[in-house]
Amino acid sequence: MTLRVYVFALASALSLVSHPVVGKDLTIGLSGTVTSLDPHFYNASPNNSIAMQVFDRLTERTAEGQLVAGLATKWEAVEETTWRLTLREGVKWHDGKTFTADDVVFTLGRAGSVPNSPGGFGGFMRNIASVKADGDLAVVITTKAPAPTLPGELANIAIVSRHAGEGADTADYNSGEAAIGTGAFRFSTFRQGIEVGLERNPDWWGKKVVWDHAKYRMISSASARTTAILAGDVDIVDAPAATDIARFKSTEKLAFVSTPGLRVIYLAPSTSGDAWKANVKGSNGEALEANPLADPRVRNALSAAINREGIVDKIMEGTATASGQWLPKGAFSYSADIQPPKPDAVAAKKMLADAGFPNGFQLTVHVPNDRYPNAPAVVQAVAQMWTRIGVKTNVEALPWTTFSSRKSEFAMKLLGLGNATYDASSMLVNVLGTVDPKRGLGAANDSGYSNPALDEIVANAMTIYDDKARETALIEAVKIAVNDGAIIPLYQQSNAWVTRKGLSYAPRIDERTLAKDISE
Amino acid sequence: MQAILSPTKFRSGMRFIRQFAQSPIALAGLVLIILIVLLAIFAPFISPQNPYDLMQLDIMDGRMAPGTQSSAGFTFIIGSDDQGRDMLSAIFYGLRISLIVGLGSAALAFIIGTAFGLTAAYVGGKIETTMMRIVDLQLSFPTILSALLILALLGKSVGNVVFAIVLVEWATYARTARGAALTELRREYVEAARSLRLPHRNILFRQLLPNCLSPLVVLLTMQVARAITLEATLSFLGLGVPVTEPSLGLLISSGYEFMLSGTYWIALFPGIALLVTIFAINLVGDRLRQLLDPKAAQK
């Protein structure tokens, strides 16, 4: 207690000149909703933003996506299917216990199999056959097949402790009981849907963190975030509304940063199962025998009807780039051959007629209204374009919490993918892979897409150690998926933040907002 | 009682209208209401665009300032929204939804609530107590919360909005109807009807109901305005009508996103339309209350 008073006094004395506040508190206005403090519950950007600070990973990504050391200081492929990772010395858990290799073994046993997960981390674990501790400060990971991308995949898995996590479920993490990490901040409060409070971990091994406390307020409405940062209620907000950017740039007391992002926004058609029946009807509202969306010609017709440049210009106001695949230009396995399809209503109509729907059909598209910037407006614009080729489209906008729990019931839905592997593989493996927990495929596949030939090519590509050859193989897989209309990519989102003047934050391509990296 | 157009009835009707017209403000309210109803009815003929037909919308016409030319050739007199909807047309069509929801739900709630309240008062005893406790229970729920819950369960559509509003509003009528009926039940004409052994249905709806109508009609007018506000609120919160068929509340909600960037017209004009509608209904409702409420009439 006395120590803390001393630190407070010191901090206030140092900051008196510029900022007459006692202690250093940071308040963040977050656009997404943190649904859990269990770092393995849901692989979504808001959850990861918190997990990345309470917990550490074996490997870490910089703001630009470079792989750097985390809790592992060295990793080497000792055999074709064996990785050996050397762990950092002297790392302590928030409760004072020492971090050891056993915690890594425990984590990798848990991360892929959290019950009720709406989209988990299994995809990153699919290659792992066994994990063994080699003394206290090294682990040996054996993979089922050659796994050249394993160190990159491990950058997504938060390491939890065995002593706090054994037998704990998601609720125990949410209450804070099991949320014992090694990260830059300790858990302090979690109010579902409202805010997350963190306090600095003075013993963290990384670089010094400026803030004593960090508070994440969940503000899903873009205009409410705008108001909050203008009024000075928060110090930094993410995902500012495109319409307000000019205003932020001209406001004296604010600063604006942005970077092209990894996140692709796409429409996912439901291609198998019965979920489509409630949301797809014939052109006169009659029930249909077969799912039109199961036909690749229909999916390609829908894609060809969309004016992506118009959407990017008019609705995203230049905060996105039209795309026909799911990576920004220059990323590993981006293909220059795949350009965003030019809008062509005539060709689209013909494709529909060829597929047996000369009069089109009726379709309801679902979209989250508080997750991706302007998403409901984008889907309404798409609905205009589809209605023009004869596919009468209704739009249903839902809050993210409802949307994400009902995802698999929709015939067509708008989603975003943060591309956690920084290449084409996370879409190919997790979203488009045939659902098969044994092979670690399709962990986030809620549309029922299945293409065994594609699965083979992807599985093969992921075993190639030579980067150039792996990239070529991945691009081949991307082309197959795009031609099959597996998803309908719309655009790559840019990531932006607005801070009060005097703060600096290196914009992350993975759109996470990390208090530990914000400096003053 | 059945001869509605008897000379005395007709004369007293005319007198009532004359009395009503003595207040110029109330008269102005009435004229406004008639105008709004006409706009809503003839919306398809006077709107430059059908804002609910996605074929007629073009995203490239989005967020045009008042006075800009649209790609289809007509002028956006008061601008367009983010989807390229003509705001004027959207307001005319939005008024339709507001009036359908307002009148529809108030009328349904009126019928259900009045029947419930009258029956309770007439039957009396334990049954009355039970019925009125149900009403109390209903009234103790926060209106918006119950409506949100119902819509979250049923999904979005105009029909469901009406259903939700009826479900949360009928109890108000039930309580008013019972209060009025309790006073009337002590009158001699009810005694007389009972001693004549008229059927219950006859006593309830032919004798009792017409004499309880005054406070209920006043309540009805006020509740129409309330139902319109409630629909706008629900739509503003994103649980009212579908996004492709915006009502006034939903237009205000989507315009609210652009308020800080200078695109004021998307939220402002539907807001004014809503305000004027509710204000006009309340003016008329107030005047009706003055005339029909015996206590207010004495002043």
Major beta sheet of chain A, specifics? 12 strands, mixed
Count of distinct strands of chain A: 18
Biggest interface and which pair forms it? A-B, 34 and 25 residues
Q: What is the CATH topology assignment of the domain at 94-299 in chain B?
A: MetI-like fold
CATH class of the domain at 94-299 in chain B: Mainly Alpha
β-strand percent of chain A reads: 15-25%
Oligomer: heterodimer
**Strand order in the sheet with the most strands of chain B:** 1-2
Distance between the termini of chain A: 26 Å
Shape of chain B: elongated
- Number of DSSP strands of chain B? 2
Tell me the span between the first and last alpha carbons of chain B: 29 Å
Q: Architecture of the domain at 94-299 in chain B, CATH level 2?
A: Orthogonal Bundle
Domain module tally of chain A: 2
Backbone structural class of chain B: mainly alpha
CATH secondary-structure class of the largest domain in chain A: Alpha Beta
Radius of gyration computed on alpha carbons of chain B:
23 Å
The low-confidence parts of chain A are: 14-21
Helical stretch tally of chain A: 17
GO cellular component, one term (chain A): ATP-binding cassette (ABC) transporter complex
Keywords (chain A): Signal, Transport
Pfam families (chain A): SBP_bac_5
Main location (chain A): periplasm
Notable characteristics:
heterodimer; A: alpha+beta; 2 domains; four-stranded antiparallel sheet; 17 helices; 18 strands; globular; B: 299 residues; MetI-like fold; two-stranded antiparallel sheet; 2 strands; 73% helix; 1% strand; cell membrane (chain B)
